[in-house]
Amino acid sequence: MVKIDKYEFPEELYYNDKYLWARVEGNAVIVGLASFAAIESGEVSYLDLIMREDDEVEAGKPFGSIESGKGATTLYAPVSGTITEVNEDTEADPSGINNDCYGAGWIVKIEASNLDADVGKLMKPDSSAFNDWLQSEIKAAEEKRKELEG
Hints:
11 strands, three-stranded antiparallel sheet, 5 helices, single chain
């Protein structure tokens, strides 16, 4: 587990720069919201998926959004392929995203169409690219908090 500030990132997962993680299992990719977004978003109250089972998704394109007391966050697919499963438990009760973002709170499973190329564009949590990206996101979140506090 890589811990940066108060956020944790399992080393075996891949991450895009839109706050999603990807767990590769063969050619299937399980997708969920990373701890940074789960914490910074506040309690997730609604999961709106615009793509469902058998729909084609494209890496970097939206497939849904989450809503919380702090607003809405668009979910961008980390890989291209076909959605084979939607986590109906998370959809019915999205608090699982906050309570267990890397486990029971996963969002969709995608059968990847170009796995190696797509995964090659994602970040590992122990990489300098990931650390640099996350540090800039942490700084932006802190500045936003200060701005809101007055």
